[in-house]
Automatic annotation (TrEMBL):
Domain Major facilitator superfamily (MFS) profile: residue ranges: 29-418
Native species: Edaphobacter modestus
UniProt topology in membrane: Multi-pass membrane protein
Entry annotated with the keyword Zinc: no
GO CC annotations on file: plasma membrane
Domain of life: Bacteria
Name this polypeptide is given: Putative MFS family arabinose efflux permease
InterPro entries from the UniProt entry: MFS_dom (IPR020846), MFS_trans_sf (IPR036259), TM_effector (IPR010290)
């Protein structure tokens, strides 16, 4: 049975006992996006190689060369949360078109300046930074649209295919970029042509986006969140989501140390191996080749090897890679080592990316991905600066050895942060007629004006009274503390459960929302997995009536001249 696109009908997964990992490519919309993304990624990796090698011709400073990686990663560190918030608030299709156009324009201006020889080391860093502002703002929305294109069960294969796209480009792009730079007498001319081709490559993605008729998975009926509030909601979710936190800790630790490979590879190529731009491109392409192999094999590997095991094998192999780069200055040894390192890199990054996408619901997905990308690139930024400084003041061998030791020694501390363990929660939105029995803002107000005033008023205190027999007390407290995480992730500022001293079977759950509007949003955010926890708590309640719920709004002080009726419409 073919997979249908989201615009033509429901997505149906093919039951296949031996999945190949290529099923998402049977969906036309995803396939078009994948092809366009691959073309654009080839241009990006060509630019990465050409830009870094142009920097080596402009300066001999290892720090400035390493800062090219920092300029590429710093925007994500600074803007990851903002990018995720905007992608969850605004139309993702329009955002993607805007930021793709931004990147096209930035690279086009850099190409013109490079052709005319007006690029200094700091100008090259500045335009690399501007380009990656667009990339930082684009990436959370770009990754968050994946569940809109394929069914949930195909997301791991989709992430692997996206990794294959990027790493196929990584295998081909660096060599092409190095070849183009080496093919001209002047590095400025070769780099200028690479920058121009990269600018054109963004047009392929813009064309796909312009022709996409988007159907969002989650669309709130409530007013849009403000950006600051959306960022705070995303941070609150991360704070109370242990599975997501594990992915973030693993991502930062891994990239912080392994960033030495990416940031110092050009220095190793030029100083230790005496290679030119083409040689550097081949080394970079070796990483990409290994990454492509990993992306095509990961669907099979993932079904046989636990996620934690994939990460630990990749971690210790990269310790070996860093030591090989530090001391084995022979291309015949380094190239196959880098191919396997590319395999390890993609295996880890794809596993972590999949864990983030599967651990969060649709309403907060872009913010979670923005936080993940910010954490990932934060490791790259701080690692690139540190290893560049160490290489500047000592040698590349010392910097690479230090990063290898740090990667190995950090593992015992982070091994307790598990990835994709146990059954995955069902994050599909929960819809029930039960919500209709809860009071809406219009039932509590006499007019639209009062409703608008009420919806923005707060804080709001929700109190739920349960009757729990003594023999169920332990089971109830276990379930209610699971519900605590749900309340806090969905927007509660404070939460508590209290037992009556006089009547021990009477327990009161209390949580506070910032406003009535935030409370309404929290009701929209309930997933099927969350509802299962809520249902278990309600089942433990004993009594003829369901748990009693009261809704209270903060009683602000009023002057004698204000009308109390305006605060209490029900009294009229």
């Amino acid at each position: 049975m073919p997979l249908e696109t989201p615009n033509s009908g429901p997505l149906v997964a093919v039951a296949n006992p031996n999945p190949s990992g290529f099923a998402p490519l049977r969906i036309r919309l995803f396939r078009d996006r994948w092809i366009a993304s691959t073309i654009s990624s080839v241009g990006t990796w060509m630019q990465d190689t050409a830009g870094t090698w142009l920097m080596t011709s402009l300066t001999a400073s290892p720090l400035l060369i390493a800062l090219m990686q920092t300029a590429a990663s710093l925007p994500v560190l600074l803007l990851g949360l903002l990018a995720g918030a905007t992608a969850d608030i605004f139309d993702r299709r329009k955002l993607l078109i805007f930021w793709q156009a931004w990147m096209l324009s930035s690279v086009a201006v850099l190409a013109v300046l490079t052709f005319f020889g007006y690029v200094s080391p700091w100008a090259l860093l500045a335009f690399t930074f501007l380009l990656n502002i667009g990339s930082a703002m684009n990436n959370p929305a770009w990754q968050a649209i994946v569940p809109e294109l394929v069914p949930r069960e195909l997301i791991p294969d989709t992430v692997s295919l996206n990794a294959a796209s990027n790493n196929l480009a990584r295998a081909v792009g660096p060599a092409l970029g190095g070849l183009m730079v080496a093919g001209f007498a002047s590095a400025h001319t070769g780099a200028g042509w690479v920058f121009l081709l990269n600018a054109i490559s963004f047009a392929a993605v813009i064309w796909v986006l312009v022709n996409w008729k988007r159907t969002p998975l989650f669309k709130s009926a409530l007013p849009s969140e403000r950006i600051a509030g959306s960022i705070m909601t995303g941070l609150r979710y991360v704070r109370y989501a242990p599975d997501l936190q594990s992915s973030l800790v693993r991502a930062f630790t891994f990239t912080f140390f392994v960033s030495a490979i990416w940031s110092l590879l050009a220095v190793v190529a030029k100083r230790d191996l005496n290679q030119g731009a083409l040689g550097y491109g081949i080394l970079n392409g070796s990483l990409g080749l290994g990454a492509v192999i990993a992306a095509t094999q990961l669907p099979r590997i993932r079904r046989r090897v636990p996620a934690d095991t994939i990460i630990v094998i990749s971690t210790f192999y990269d310790v070996i890679t860093l030591l090989v780069l530090a001391y084995a200055h022979y291309p015949a040894i380094i190239i196959p080592t880098l191919i396997l390192s590319g395999f390890a890199w993609t295996s880890t990054m794809s596993t972590l990316n999949t864990s983030v996408q599967l651990s969060v619901p649709a309403w907060v997905q872009a913010r979670a991905l923005g936080t993940y990308l910010m954490t990932f690139q934060g490791g790259m930024v701080f690692g690139s600066i540190l290893w560049g400084l160490v290489a500047e003041h000592t040698s590349t061998s010392v910097a690479l050895t230090a990063s290898a030791c740090g990667l190995a020694l950090s593992y015992p501390a982070i091994r307790r942060f598990h990835i994709l363990q146990g059954p995955l929660p069902d994050h599909t939105p929960f819809r029930s007629s039960r919500s209709a029995s809860q009071p809406s803002v219009f039932q509590l107000a006499d007019s639209a004006a009062q409703a608008d005033d009420l919806i923005h008023s707060g804080p709001v205190r929700i109190s739920i009274e349960y009757r729990i027999p003594a023999e169920r007390y332990a089971e109830f407290t276990h379930a209610i503390h699971q519900l605590r995480g749900v309340r806090l992730r969905d927007g509660a500022m404070r939460w508590g459960i209290y037992r009556d001293v006089i009547d021990p079977e009477r327990l009161n759950e209390t949580f506070v929302m910032e406003s009535w509007l935030d409370y309404l949003r929290s009701r929209e955010r309930i997933t099927t997995a969350d509802e299962a926890i809520r249902a278990r708590v309600r089942e433990l309640h004993q009594g003829e009536e369901p748990p009693k719920i009261s809704y209270q709004i903060y009683a602000r002080e009023i002057t004698p001249h204000e009308s109390p009726e305006a605060l209490h419409p029900e009294s009229r």
